Please model this.
Amino acid sequence: MDYSPLRTALADVVAIPVTPYDAEGAVDRAAYRALLRRLLDGGVKAVTPNGNTGEFYALTLEERRLVTELTVEEAAGRAAVLVGVGHDATTAVEAARHARAAGADMVMVHQPVHPYVAQDGWIDYHRTIAEAVPDLGVVPYLRNPLIEGAAIARLGEACPNVIGVKYAVHDATRFAAVARDAGLDRFVWVAGLAELYAPSYWAVGATGFTSGLANVAPNVSLNMLGALRAGDYPGAMKVWEQIRRFEDLRAERQSANNVTVVKEALAAMGLCRRDVRAPSKPLPEPRRAEVAAIVEGWSV
Model:
C-alpha cells in the first residue's frame, strides 16, 4: 500500500477531540459533532477520537464505538481519522477492526496498561494489532522511556503499516536518540506532549504534534505549526508564551486536569458542558474563572 497520504496527515496538528456529555451523563452526540465541525472548519487535518483528551479509559466499549462512528461520519474525508485503541490485545484488535469497518484511516495504539512490559512483549502487542488491520496505518503511542529505538525498528520491519510514532516521553534528548535508532525517516514522529514540547521535539526530528488545545483554539495550534514549518522558532515561542499558563494548568499534578481544563474552556465558550468522568474532576470555581480569562484573551 501507499501510505504516503497517511504519513502526510500525521505530519501536522493531530487534534484529540474531547467527548462531551449531556445532562444525564451520556455522550452528547450533537455537541460532539459540532465540536468536530469546529475543528475541521478551523483547518485541522487529522483527528484522534478515543484519545486521552477524549477520556478513552472512562468510556464504555459501546461509547468508544459510537465516538469512532460519529467522527468518521463528520470528518467525511475532510481530515484523516486516527482512532485510539487499547486495553488487552484482543480488545484492541476488535476496536481496530471496528475502526476499519467504520471507515477510519489509522489507529493509534495506547500504551499497554500493564505493570510489566518487556521490549519483546511490547513488539508482540503492537504487531498483533498491526497485522489484524494491514490496510490501516498504525501509530504506537509511546510513553515508556525504556522502549528503545531498536524495538521500534523491529516492529517497523515486521509491519509496514506501522507508519508513525506518537512519542510522549518528557525528554527531548531521549526522543532524538530513539527516533534516530528507530529510523528518523522510516516513521513519522509526532510530538505527543502537545504544543509546549513541540518546538524542542521539532528541532530534533518531529514533524507533527498532538493537541488538546485545538479543541478550544485551532488557529493557535495551526499558528505554531506554521511557525515550526517555516523554521521560525521565535514565532513558535510567541505562541508557546501565549498558551503556557493554559497548558501548565493541564499538566499540574501529573496532568490530573488535562481534560478538565479543556472542557472548562469549552464550557466558558458555551460549546459543551464542563462534565468529566471520574477519576477526573471539574475545576474549583477560582480556576474556572482563570481558564475563562485565558480563553477570552485569545479572542477565539
Remarks:
- The mean pLDDT is 97.
- The CA atoms of residues 113 and 221 lie 29 Å apart.
- Residues 233-255 form the longest helix (23 residues).
- The chain is about 50% helix and 10% strand.
